[in-house]
Amino acid sequence: MTTTLRTPRADAAPTPPPAGPPRLTAKQRLSRFDLKASPYFYTSPFFILFAVTGLFPLAYTLVVSMHEWDLLKGQGPFVGLDNFVEILGDSMFWNSIFNTVSIFLLSAIPQLIVAIVVAYLLDQGLRAPTFWRMGVLLPFVVTPVAVAIIFSSIFNEADGLANNLLNLIGIQDQAWKHDTFLSHFAIATMVNFRWTGYNALILLAAMQSVPRDLYESAAIDGAGSIRRFFSITIPSIRPTLIFVIITSTIGGLQIFAEPRLFDVSNAGGIGGSDRQFQTTVLFMWELAFFRRDFGEAAAVAWLLFLLIIGFGLVNFLISRRIATGEGRPNRRTRRALARGENR
Amino acid sequence: MKLSRRTRGVAAIAGAASIALLATACSTGGDSGGDGEDITLTVTTFGTFGYDDLYQEYEAANPGVKIEATNIDTGGNARTDAFTKIAAGSGLSDVVAIEEGWLGAIMEVSDQFVDLTEYGIEDRKGDWVDWKYEQATDADGRVIGYGTDIGPTGLCYNGPAFAAAGLPTDREEVAALLEGDWAHYFEVGAQYTAATGKAWYDHSGFVWNSMVNQLDEGYYTADGELNVEDNAELRDLFGLLGAATEGGQSAAQAAWDWNGGKSFVDGTFATFVCPGWMLGVVQGQVEAGGGDASTGWDFADVFPGGAGNWGGAWLSIPETSQHKEEAAKLADWLTQPEQQVKQSKAAGNFPSTLGAQEELASAAEPNEFFNGAPTGAILATRAEGVKAQFKGADDSVIQENVFGPPLQALDRGEVDTAAAWDQAIELLHELVEE
């Protein structure tokens, strides 16, 4: 971008410095307008769409959250921050936060590790690469609802596949839909099933742009494949890794379909008989559409929004440190390492 | 900056895509069938409604009317669907089926639905059992629903399971055996459980619903006051149910799943509370579980604690409908006694009009699936003495979200009866504003 901007200025330099404002022909003016304004027009569709589908709902939700608002009867009196106070003092809200974070950690961490490993394997010059890549992406094509229905049958407590397999190796039936940890594990499994391959492909794309000669020279220097993976691959894909971590954070904190459909026998799916796996989005849904309290539900939506921003920032900071990249101290350590190896 | 060509291409594609998105967003809606006489009426029902053949019949009799029907699997999901669309201010079908459990919440916004007295429902007032018509009448005298079915409750039982425990299997003997109050029902259940080691009923939630629906006043008093916490009658019934459940009479099934219907087939439980509309559900579950009529489910003319009504529905026309008059005409036709008889034959549910009830009672047609039981005639006797119960705005929330979870914990033996009741009261305070 900087180069394209600089070019016209270089063109303009030879013209004699005008006394007053330069008189431009219509064509010149049009061309200048084109130069200055076109980029904004090109990018405007996104911003217009974002304003309509993103910014407006965000602001409107804030308005709703400051009113008493019945789902059916509509707007009530203005109550300021009462809804937020109510929610922050509600144990069910905190329960839902705990469940969300627990499911998020159970899904995000294994998912990223497996995705990196899968991407690394796919990057090894396998035969029929397209076949393997498409195979990895296949679960992503299945809709979350279908995944949830299939897995809730697998984790059925009476006759499900999971329990039947456990029985084969002598383990008793497990209460997948009632035990807190097991239910979180089951839901995390659904998320992992769907997203691991997708993330692996994104990471694979990044890995393929790592210059091969780096690997070669490292190999010549005697670095083994594990060493090459940690010292070359991971640092080189750092920006992509950060992207994947942030998007999976956002997705992970918004889990809805999986817990909603995991056990529909409780009030049509409010997240377990004791809200063992009621995530925050599910709690918000129960508030809005069962209890018909739209105001409090909007407050939950905003709190969740803030939470996701917070989590995103923390993740960003952590992931900047994980992998050595362009940061200065990292480069120094790398040099130190190289010096050490030469010795 | 060698990428510039590619980025430009991407920008063009992104721009085109977003414009396409905007365009599609704008192009929905419209489709007003004004002049061409050809109109499409949308209808949303739930559960087993039995209307499919009637739609065809209506279309054949009314050229130019096309019916687009949607059926939602359960009443609970139909509620979410309807509530969401009311809140959004659009999207409701021209004819919407409303269930008794959430009628209370709908009545609070009854002005969102067409006053059917404008379409002559008053002339048909005598068709329905009186309380059915009154339940859909709001404080201003507006009537917002054509009654479809009511839910008089009888008892479904499994013949082979009864035989295995040495209990009678003939439906009249079963009726005589179980005649009495809930305590008596649980006594027989204790005998059954002792003899077979199996459960007597599928799960506590449905039994609890039928117990509550039987009372003169349920979760609310007749004047609309919340009436749960200090309601001794409710507490006593809860105690009865809890004792039986602790005694192993509940099969702790997940409702609307029943292990994929298999629990209906493999003798997991012996009895099942059956409001009229539930007969279709039972048949569907047995078939899903790989069973058929030979699985041995039967329907007895008896219900613990006497007559009770659970569920039933109305057909309403939302104010947002583009074809109110045509929709009202269709809903009116669908709820005529003649059509209700056909509906009942298709779905097994019980009609709300007196004419249809009489016809079913006198025909006493055997229901092949339920071991030849004359289900229509039995339901007609079960409907005798049914009283309407006032349903408050949060009735369905109390039923499902307040009492559902503690009863499930009780079924699974995680808590005892007293703790389950306390848990329910706690949930009531948290979930329902007084």
From TrEMBL, chain A:
<feature type="region of interest" description="Disordered">
    <location>
        <begin position="1"/>
        <end position="23"/>
    </location>
</feature>
<keyword id="KW-0812">Transmembrane</keyword>
<keyword id="KW-0472">Membrane</keyword>
<dbReference type="GO" id="GO:0005886">
    <property type="term" value="C:plasma membrane"/>
</dbReference>
<protein>
    <submittedName>
        <fullName>ABC transporter permease subunit</fullName>
    </submittedName>
</protein>
<feature type="transmembrane region" description="Helical">
    <location>
        <begin position="185"/>
        <end position="206"/>
    </location>
</feature>
<comment type="similarity">
    <text>Belongs to the binding-protein-dependent transport system permease family.</text>
</comment>
<dbReference type="Pfam" id="PF00528">
    <property type="entry name" value="BPD_transp_1"/>
</dbReference>
<keyword id="KW-0813">Transport</keyword>
<feature type="transmembrane region" description="Helical">
    <location>
        <begin position="97"/>
        <end position="122"/>
    </location>
</feature>
<feature type="domain" description="ABC transmembrane type-1">
    <location>
        <begin position="97"/>
        <end position="315"/>
    </location>
</feature>
<feature type="compositionally biased region" description="Low complexity">
    <location>
        <begin position="1"/>
        <end position="13"/>
    </location>
</feature>
<dbReference type="InterPro" id="IPR035906">
    <property type="entry name" value="MetI-like_sf"/>
</dbReference>
<feature type="transmembrane region" description="Helical">
    <location>
        <begin position="299"/>
        <end position="318"/>
    </location>
</feature>
<dbReference type="InterPro" id="IPR000515">
    <property type="entry name" value="MetI-like"/>
</dbReference>
<dbReference type="GO" id="GO:0055085">
    <property type="term" value="P:transmembrane transport"/>
</dbReference>
<keyword id="KW-1003">Cell membrane</keyword>
<dbReference type="InterPro" id="IPR051393">
    <property type="entry name" value="ABC_transporter_permease"/>
</dbReference>
<keyword id="KW-1133">Transmembrane helix</keyword>
<feature type="transmembrane region" description="Helical">
    <location>
        <begin position="134"/>
        <end position="155"/>
    </location>
</feature>
<feature type="transmembrane region" description="Helical">
    <location>
        <begin position="237"/>
        <end position="257"/>
    </location>
</feature>
<feature type="transmembrane region" description="Helical">
    <location>
        <begin position="40"/>
        <end position="63"/>
    </location>
</feature>
From TrEMBL, chain B:
<dbReference type="InterPro" id="IPR050490">
    <property type="entry name" value="Bact_solute-bd_prot1"/>
</dbReference>
<dbReference type="Pfam" id="PF13416">
    <property type="entry name" value="SBP_bac_8"/>
</dbReference>
<protein>
    <submittedName>
        <fullName>Extracellular solute-binding protein</fullName>
    </submittedName>
</protein>
<dbReference type="InterPro" id="IPR006059">
    <property type="entry name" value="SBP"/>
</dbReference>
<keyword id="KW-0732">Signal</keyword>
<feature type="signal peptide">
    <location>
        <begin position="1"/>
        <end position="25"/>
    </location>
</feature>
